[in-house]
Known about the structure:
It is a single chain. This protein has 478 residues and is of the alpha+beta class. It has a domain at 221-469: Beta Barrel (Lipocalin). The protein has helices spanning 3-30, 79-133, 140-153, 156-192, 196-215, 272-277, and strands spanning 53-59, 65-70, 221-233, 239-242, 254-258, 265-269, 282-285, 296-298, 301-305, 311-316, 322-327, 348-351, 356-361, 368-374, 381-390, 397-400, 403-407, 415-421, 426-433, 441-447, 452-457, 460-469. α1 packs antiparallel against α2 (79-133), α2 packs antiparallel against α3 (140-153) and α2 runs antiparallel to α4 (156-192). It is elongated. The termini are far apart.
Amino acid sequence: MSPPLLKLGAVLSTMAMISNWMSQTLPSLVGLNTTRITTSDTLTQISPKEGWQVYSSAQDPDGRCICTVVAPEQNLCSRDAKSRQLRQLLEKVQNMSQSIEVLNLRTQRDFQYVLKMETQMKGLKAKFRQIEDDRKTLMTKHFQELKEKMDELLPLIPVLEQYKTDAKLITQFKEEIRNLSTVLTGIQEEIGAYDYEELHQRVVNLETRLRDCMKKLTCGKLMKITGPITVKISGTRFGAWMTDPLASEKNNRVWYMDGYTNNKIVREYKSIADFVSGAESRTYNLPFKWAGTNHVVYNGSLYFNKYQSNIIIKYSFDTGRVLAQRSLEYAGFHNVYPYTWGGFSDIDLMADEIGLWAVYATNQNAGNIVISQLNQDTLEVLKSWSTGYPKRSAGESFMICGTLYVTNSHLTGAKVYYSYSTKTSTYEYTDIPFHNQYFHISMLDYNARDRALYAWNNGHQVLFNVTLFHVIKTEDDT
């Protein structure tokens, strides 16, 4: 190999070393080599909060305190462990910075040679063109040697261009490492400025105050819907998925019911993660087929509408038996009074902070929505409210704190258009938009434990976060 090619071999060796170092070292430093649950769509993981958060606070015209809070899980961070991890990360970054400096010096040295060789090659190319124009006056042997040398060097030009790009990336990476080192040093200094015992006491005091505040919170009113978060893509266009709002914090089972008719199979998953990965834990074969997609799991039991009837079934997952069944008097069924999209969605069962509900329509109420509160054990109707909203005009509906919220469509442009309060027996027209990303919602239910809406959107299982307005009760409130 001629001297220029030997030098180029050293350049390419340097590039290979840099590429190998970046592929093996960087992922371990920034955490990209950790195992993650992947799906065809992105799942947004919600990590436990490390402290109480106050989103907003104010006073209403009557002088009452108004605030929005988010309660954390009951755990405290270890300052010593975090400081040690921070120091270790800082040391790795500093070592990485030194390695980058060495690589950068070597790269710059080789880069200068590349530029020099590139100039020589371009001059050689110009000379060759001149020779090409007057080749008849030169000896055939010299011309052929020169042409062969040029043919040997021409394929290396793209390699040199790529090397110039890699050298620029190395310089940028060096600057990013320098900035990261500065940030980590600042964080380390800030953490060291606080005494651990003092921080711990401040957290305990804040938790106590916020717990007292939350005990005085009234039931919330829906203010905003955000999302959706796509959890999974599976099943047909229509179906239902849900968790139990009365389950303990450690119980995160998910139930999955595909289709709106001609099915009796319920699939259970131990967690959202298992649901996403498809790790099914148990299958239930119900004694009856269900109608619609408006089922609910509440306190360990599944409540669903029996196919081609207005009968409600209570089925226990623990015993695998039907615990109760009762006809919902006068309720339309089998696409007599469904939601806009049809699908035998005449009877919608749901749960909120107050209890178990059934939403349906009757001839006696001219096809308008009727809300009934149910006894969760016997399925007896405790009380009913007749609204003036046509059931067939509703896209979907859900209950929050005893108020029914009705969407105006199951297609694009959907928003919460109407609400009815069972506490005051009054209604109002609202305008709360939400993003119907996949254009066809066939199930939308509120979960009081998660403070979220579960939805089945055209074969996509998605979550919507809700923002509720809470008022703190005073001693004067009854």
